[in-house]
Amino acid sequence: MRLGAYVPNFAAETTQGRLQFYDWLGDSWCILFSHPADFTPVCTSELCRLAESHCEFWQRGVKLLALSCDRLRSHTSWLEDLKKFSRTLPTQFPYPIIADESRELAVMLDMIDENQKDNPEMAMTVRSLYIIGPDRRVKLTMQYPNSTGRSVEEILRVIDSLQLTSRLKCVATPSDWEPGKQLMILPHVKDEDLPALFPGGVDTVDTPSGQNYIRTTNDVWREPWRSRQPKQRQPEMFHPTLAAQSMDESTSLNEVIKFIDEVARMPNLKQMPLSDLMELTSSLVSETTYTQSTSERLQAMTKFLGALTL
């Protein structure tokens, strides 16, 4: 798919159940990526690295969705190998993997190698990656050969760039940019507007051509750009699996209660999806069963119920 292409809705079987893409995506950003095959070394390293960095993507409001042409049974079996290879993954693998056995989605999403596109029934997916915005349009594409694994650090870097420049239409990120480094001001911004837009200062490079088109600044996070953002960032949704995944049989009651108190302070608690709410309830009930005292369990659950009614 090309930049700016509108990603069509689709249904798919995944390791987390049947998925309707638009319903699953909601208002989030998304990384939709393919891998050539299950039970292969480079694919194992890629999916594990992305899973280990799931919190980094979640904090940016980005969902992950993998795809290959393997059967669902193959994906499910392979997940056990992924957990063994990583050793730091949560009990539940944090993102779904699509089983596109018919290759219908791979062809529709242009994830097939050029040399194999005329024989899609036998072709495997290449290492395609699409970053999709909340408007369901492709914001960035990457395609790697089977021999080369992708860099999670680079994926996070370009997400930071895309999200920043989608909010601030007057700047762009230069080569090797990372958050906190200088940004470049786009040519359409007039020189006379710079003091008001960037009161912290602008650096201009003198060029032999005499055209002052190389202008940089570190001032983008100051006013007035905060108030000039075209759309406020949506409140982050609470994700109970990520918050509770560090708990195990050794978790003390005090730690459980502390977790409940943290839930109670979440400003967006009432926006929690019903499925997440049920998952949270199940997690807390499970954790409180490790205590021996009925009164302690009751105390923990009372705090939890109080949190839900805030």
TrEMBL record:
Q: Where is the Thioredoxin domain?
A: 1-164
Q: Name one GO cellular component term.
A: cytosol
Pfam families listed in its UniProt record: AhpC-TSA
Q: Which InterPro entries match?
A: AhpC/TSA, PRX_1cys, Thioredoxin-like_sf, Thioredoxin_domain
GO MF terms, alphabetically ordered: peroxiredoxin activity
Q: Does the keyword Aminoacyl-tRNA synthetase apply?
A: no
UniProt keyword list: Antioxidant, Oxidoreductase, Peroxidase, Redox-active center
UniProt-listed SUPFAM superfamilies:
Thioredoxin-like
KW Signal (keyword) present: no
Family label: Belongs to the peroxiredoxin family. Prx6 subfamily.
What does the UniProt function comment say about this protein?
Answer: Thiol-specific peroxidase that catalyzes the reduction of hydrogen peroxide and organic hydroperoxides to water and alcohols, respectively. Plays a role in cell protection against oxidative stress by detoxifying peroxides.
**Stated name of the protein:** 1-Cys peroxiredoxin
Question: Which organism does this sequence originate in?
Answer: Thrips palmi
Name the gene behind this protein. LOC117652239
